[in-house]
Amino acid sequence: MSIVLTTQCRDDVGLIAKVTGLCYEHNLNIVRNNEFVDKAGERFFMRTELTGNVGEQFLPQLRNVLPDGAQVHLHGNEKTKVVLLATKEAHCLGGMLLKQYENAFNVEIQAVVANYDTLKPLVEGFGVPFHLVSHQGLTREQHDDAMAQVIEQYQPDFIGLAKYMRVLSPQFVARFSNQIINIHHSFLPAFIGAKPYHQAFERGVKIIGATAHFVNDELDEGPIIMQDVTQVSHADSAEAMAKMGRDIEKVVFCKAIQLAAEHKLFINGNKTVVFA
Amino acid sequence: MSIVLTTQCRDDVGLIAKVTGLCYEHNLNIVRNNEFVDKAGERFFMRTELTGNVGEQFLPQLRNVLPDGAQVHLHGNEKTKVVLLATKEAHCLGGMLLKQYENAFNVEIQAVVANYDTLKPLVEGFGVPFHLVSHQGLTREQHDDAMAQVIEQYQPDFIGLAKYMRVLSPQFVARFSNQIINIHHSFLPAFIGAKPYHQAFERGVKIIGATAHFVNDELDEGPIIMQDVTQVSHADSAEAMAKMGRDIEKVVFCKAIQLAAEHKLFINGNKTVVFA
Amino acid sequence: MSIVLTTQCRDDVGLIAKVTGLCYEHNLNIVRNNEFVDKAGERFFMRTELTGNVGEQFLPQLRNVLPDGAQVHLHGNEKTKVVLLATKEAHCLGGMLLKQYENAFNVEIQAVVANYDTLKPLVEGFGVPFHLVSHQGLTREQHDDAMAQVIEQYQPDFIGLAKYMRVLSPQFVARFSNQIINIHHSFLPAFIGAKPYHQAFERGVKIIGATAHFVNDELDEGPIIMQDVTQVSHADSAEAMAKMGRDIEKVVFCKAIQLAAEHKLFINGNKTVVFA
Amino acid sequence: MSIVLTTQCRDDVGLIAKVTGLCYEHNLNIVRNNEFVDKAGERFFMRTELTGNVGEQFLPQLRNVLPDGAQVHLHGNEKTKVVLLATKEAHCLGGMLLKQYENAFNVEIQAVVANYDTLKPLVEGFGVPFHLVSHQGLTREQHDDAMAQVIEQYQPDFIGLAKYMRVLSPQFVARFSNQIINIHHSFLPAFIGAKPYHQAFERGVKIIGATAHFVNDELDEGPIIMQDVTQVSHADSAEAMAKMGRDIEKVVFCKAIQLAAEHKLFINGNKTVVFA
After folding, report:
1. Which single residue of B220, C144, D50, D192 has CA 20 to 30 Å from C106?
2. What is the active site of this protein (chains A, B, C, D) (predicted)?
3. Tens of pLDDT along D88-102?
4. How crowded is the C-beta side of B224, counted as CA atoms within 13 Å?
5. Does domain D3-75 match CATH 3.30.70.260?
6. How many CB pairs lie under 8 A apart between chains A and B?
């Protein structure tokens, strides 16, 4: 079984040599390595798949040879923990539950939190806890706070918005900073906001898409993780586009979560680095 | 050899029966038929590939059975005539010239008009007339008028903007209404305007694209004909995206012109109907 | 709600006019029409979406105007009935169950028949009957006959092999002639037979795929319905290809069943006609 | 401007550390790095983009730290030299000539050798030498030898078969071992041999493709470099498929040559390693 080392820091000369040299000293074998230097931003990103036994001295020594403020993490084979938020639509949520059932990725869906109980039977049918947190009679902040309390008992690595159809408050976004992954039903930055398939139909585009992105305080403006598209024609109504789009949303959302689970995903300002 | 009949008119009951019935009466055999009804717009579009001899009475009789104002056209096997406008970039223009050289489509490139002479050797190497119409010292209207005079001696069916990098005046657009096809180097409606690849890079998208569209008075807002995309990553600079994008632009532009040449393309308000 | 008329018969002149003319006489409005003539095979195929009330005289009159032996069917909005066969793998089966749960297509999964009980909880979690028909101690013919008896009580329109990993006997195939749809985990005709992903890995291909096809007596040789592909690289092991392939298999299988359910699929000798 | 270092050798521990460590000692900055270990074959492949001044001691020192028999090369910014072989079809050849004209890749097309003079005007229009080496009256070996003599005066890095429609003799293949890149008009290993589009039509596939591969002594069996596909339908004749296929062939062939020119392509037994 392999270990994944992720490194990100200020760019400098010799970083690959320093990291891989230390691995060599520690008798760690590199199975796969990816690195990226953002020249403009002067940031260095690396993902290293290793085999061997990582001793206690490895990380401290690694920090020693890297620039100040370097973020280094070792990830074993434990599953990445995810809580999913949903509303009423089943496709992205069901896609995730099925993937977990198939053992198709290294994710543990710890729980689903939804503001309606529509999807409860689906979720519980897969043996996953379902929490109804209705927004009825609550302010956005109160509702988000109620959800956050449920979520925090699970200490998830990531929160996936599996077609959660409400805008999250800045407080919620800040509380789970860099942890929230959304699926937007358009090919961003086209068709930001509501009813993107209707916008796409009105504009007469010939391709529609979906975008997985991290959530920040600007609606549909967070770092893009993954996108995919499908062809449409004049004969497709907005409803037909929405139906075709759901297949894309499901695939893109599951793959984005999988990238996160495999530690292949880094946030770099308003962009992502993805070692696919 | 087949004949193409194109029909567009106000929607009504029995239109397919009326057109195909008349074809049957005239001993015309239908090889391929496509139709589309825009319910909201109440418009009917049909493309019919026929074999047989079309007599003089056919079109008048057809107009008789169709709603008032119907547009019907018979297209034989003569090549579709196209004049291309260019500036300095070779890829879309070269793609078209090569397609013609390969006999890959039923298009005659009558001439190329450009505001620089950069591409003259390429164009003349393919035996196509090249007209330099410099914009130096002219207002936009004067320059467009000078180009229009060159173009009009060719009486083209369509004008293709093969990376013509200037905005056309409303007068020019009106003069060649519904005849001008542009290639825009983004996946519209994302990244309207200048430097779309730089915009795409800044936004951190994971897919870039190109869009062929008819030109109207709103910049990059005309009816979309065709779009295609390609994947990019964090490692691709704006320049790398532009380079990858040029391959997409070339393919999309050539295919859009080919659709027009095969009479598979109808304008429907701000959209197109494409019988691909 | 619309009705679908499917027509297939020997080719002849005026067939479109005859069918659409009769629709017009019966005050049936054509919403969408697709037709195809196989010139070499002299066969005519048409799918017509209609609105209006179809009287009892329509089909007899239609048969009267068509060549002898014409097959004509009217399909209302009732769901297409499907029984799925499975073994141990969840992805194609789960994909179908989830699609049904989402109301994403007009299919009723009547039951699942499997030779292991592995997938029983998944199937029953979606409220679908699960029948275990073990092959232990039975000849292939006996086992197939036992499955056929279970299937026949449901009178399905189609039988979907959702990764059913045994070869079916000619008797079974004949019993459900033109009704059995399989998903093969390669881009046919490449890599017929066992372990296609290992074959693909050994050959060093750069794209892998999946193929949905009707089953006939030649292994992996039946009429192809749909195919899709994904890119792979030198870094992907046979196991990684299999994992990526499962996503393609799931999508292709569900779409093939959907085409059948929407009456967009015709068998034409060893090929299919698909009005997508 | 960057330098590319390519390394391939027997696998061993610490290879990345050794190579990147030596770069660091020599004050060479790594812009981009890719590596791959073929575990089964015990081979290590690495491509390193560097900036800085590489002194004379670098390569000898590098060979010293690597396993015996390591192949290491430094590639500056000089263009990769290619001779193209052709017959009568223009699309792949024209695609390459146009790419060179656009300055779209770092390739110098030194000459074209063809067994007909059909393409002479196209080639010379782009200012590239054209050599007619007719096969009339020659044995295959004599013809191949005549071509080889023309080719050898150019000392090309690669020979591209731009739809050269004859089988090459084993002597020719051995003479230019690992240097010959072919474009085959099918999605290999489907439809090996003659008339693949007719084979594809007969089989009724729904996707066709093209494959660029290195040539060895087994027809269409050499290491695959790149593949791409496009969708087809029941309505596409073999001729229509061939026409659509030519667009794919052109793109795949040009990209395969580009990969070679950018030193992103390694042969690994009967497979390739491609750092795309």
Report:
1. C144
2. 220
3. 999 999 999 999 999
4. 27
5. yes
6. 77
